[in-house]
Amino acid sequence: MNDIRVQFNKWSSTQQHIQFFSLHQFYEHLLGQAFTLITRDDFLLWFKENELHSRLTAEDLFLEINTVIKGRTEQKMMTQQQYYTFVSDFSLQEKQNIYFVACLYQKWLDKTFIP
Fold first, then answer.
1. pLDDT by residue (tens digit) across 12-24?
2. Is 49 helix (H, G, I), strand (E, B) or coil?
């Protein structure tokens, strides 16, 4: 029993404890730099504060913008032409509305968060 206590005291007196990170903290630790994480709630607040309107809910817009317009390209976002020709269930008119919101959102991100 004494051996176990000695081993525990050795372990607990060192700085090699297990650390738990949120995903955000993990990326900062892994990349070695701080960054701002924009969440769905941040988008919803921005959408509401700017009094934007759409046939789609703000949640649906967030998903479409982040998974298709911003998520399927290596640039900040798809070009307008790329998005309009992307196969989806949205009509061209809906895509125009979504892309308009995406452009406003990207301008806000560039102005507010990205150096």
1. 655 556 677 888 8
2. helix
